[in-house]
Amino acid sequence: MSLVRNIARSYRAPGEVVSGLARGDLREPQVLFFALLACGLIFVAQWPGLSRAATLDPSVTFEQRMGGALFAVMFILPLLLYAVAGLLQLMLRMYRPVAGLHVRLAFFWALLAVTPLMLLQGGMSAMLGPQGAVLAFGFVVAGAFLYILGAGLRTVVQITQPSRQDG
């Protein structure tokens, strides 16, 4: 199934999407692609807000703001995502042995699935500025992320069979 259809399906049946991805020919480059694509879309989502901020405060140019955002989102964020995925795997291992690749899949997929909402929030921040509606929509984005992540992690725990080496 296509990436866009899977993202749309993630809001209705996130466990099924993660299960389908995990049961396929899943490899680390595919999971890394999900993380980097999510980071790229998060970077794009910041452009309208950065443009507004540069217009309101010209002491820091738009290009300087873009450079800082590019470094943070495309170079630092992927490293942090892998660290958080590692912590998630350690926490899940207390419950039941799970494959690290599957945990990263559920985590990175949840992040990628909410990027359309992040793009919408970026547009809202450019139009409205730092208003309560933008902050409230941020809670909607966080809730959607946690919903998709929770369903994905439940699916990963169910489909991962413990091996004799883990014991």
Structure description:
This protein is an all-alpha fold and 167 residues long. The chain has one domain. Helix 2 crosses helix 5, helix 4 packs across helix 5 and helix 5 runs antiparallel to helix 7. The longest helix is centred in the middle third of the chain and has 34 residues. The radius of gyration is 18 Å and the shape is elongated. It starts with a helix and ends in an 8-residue tail after the last helix. The C terminus is likely disordered.
Topology:
Layout: H1 3-9, H2 14-23, H3 28-56, H4 62-95, H5 100-113, H6 115-128, H7 132-159
Helix pairs in contact: 2-5, 2-7, 3-4, 3-5, 3-6, 4-5, 5-7, 6-7
Main beta sheet: none
Q: From the alpha carbons, calculate the radius of gyration and give it in angstroms.
A: 18 Å
- Please state the overall shape, judged from the principal axes of the Cα atoms: elongated
The number of helical segments is 7
Strand fraction: under 5%
Helix content: over 70%
Mean pLDDT: 89
Instruction: Tally the structural domains.
Output: 1
Distance between the termini: 35 Å
Say how many strands there are: 0
Category from helices, strands and their pairing: mainly alpha
Segments where pLDDT lies below 50 for 5+ residues?
A: 163-167
Outline of the structure:
The protein is about 80% helix and about 0% strand. It has about 170 residues and is mainly alpha-helical. The protein has one domain (about 25-160).
